[in-house]
Amino acid sequence: METTLENNPKNIIYKKGLIIAGPCSAESEQQLLQxxxxxxxxxxxxxxxxxxxxxxxxxxxxxxxxTKGLAWLLKAKQLAGLKTAVEVATAKHVEDxxxxxxxxxxxxxxxxxxxxSVQQIADALKETKQTVLIKNPxxxxxxxxxxxxxxxxxxxxxxxxxxHRGFTSYGNTEYRNVPxxxxxxxxxxxxxxxxxxxxxxxxxxxxxxxxxxxxxSTDLDYDGLMIESHFDPESALTDKNQQITPDELxxxxxxxxxxxxxxxxxxxxxxxxxxxxxxxYLDEELISLxxxxxxxxxEIGNIKKESNVTILQSxxxxxxxxxxxxxxxxxxxxxxxxxxxxxxxxxESIRVQNTI
Length: 356
Ligand code: PEP
Ligand code: MN
Fold this sequence. Notes:
By secondary structure, this protein is an alpha/beta fold. It has two domains: about 240 residues, Aldolase class I (TIM Barrel, Alpha-Beta Barrel); about 90 residues, Chorismate mutase (Chorismate Mutase Domain, subunit A), CATH 1.20.59.10. The chain is about 50% helix and about 10% strand.
């Protein structure tokens, strides 16, 4: 039998097609209630999210309304009959959230990076049977993500889910946080039983990309989505560019195609299809990485042109090959393959520089 919210009340995050939505931040009682009423009316949302304590990059920004927002959230929960979720970063946050009957806690990306903080949260959760979602760390270090899961499991937390919200990268990309799909795919392989949720809002940082990232994640057999929704995004105090109205959310969710559950692993076709989709996305990522490499190559070409030096510098090419072969050996790729691949990249690099 498929596990649903109804037949598995113990683990409310275990449901194919789980939807967590709500504003980035609780800003006022009116803002939270208005948004909640509009979301609840659609009957598409399972869990209402709202940030109460906001980790801002720079001081002076809106840092959340604090504990008083928990009372609004409780009111929203009672009014709409939705489960609730908040981000916690300290033991005190955990204590406060639990005292206001919050159903799901999540550990934010800036907290997952810090083992001290994660341990503090884990200690505060000991023996609570609380449901906890763990966002990926801001930096692409899968070990920190794994470590956070292990710290919670060690104190007896069993209802754990994972949220993929993308990774910080240097320079401009089309994303606010680059998805780097290979990391969540590896995480899913390591923890096949944990519900996997995609947060397209923080991956995209804008509204335009939300649907495509959300659909990508469901194609990769994720279990749910966390999407920021505000009744009036333009007036939002945090993340205004990525929040959508409840109505826009509803339209987006209608478009999402949830593939059949792959939980029946004996189903060979499903398994194969899932693996093929993973290959497709990894290939896409590889192509976009190669394209980034070519952009750097072009910049080098410009510098060479300005200083009037030759395109081909054999010393540098040997160095690149040597590095690549060393790396290939570590990750068990054959020398022959690596040479062929690097040669192809090199030929393309020369072509790119010749066009300058
Ligand atoms: C959030 O969910 O509003 C948030 C702060 O997210 P993240 O930890 O992914 O940056
Ligand atoms: Mn946000």
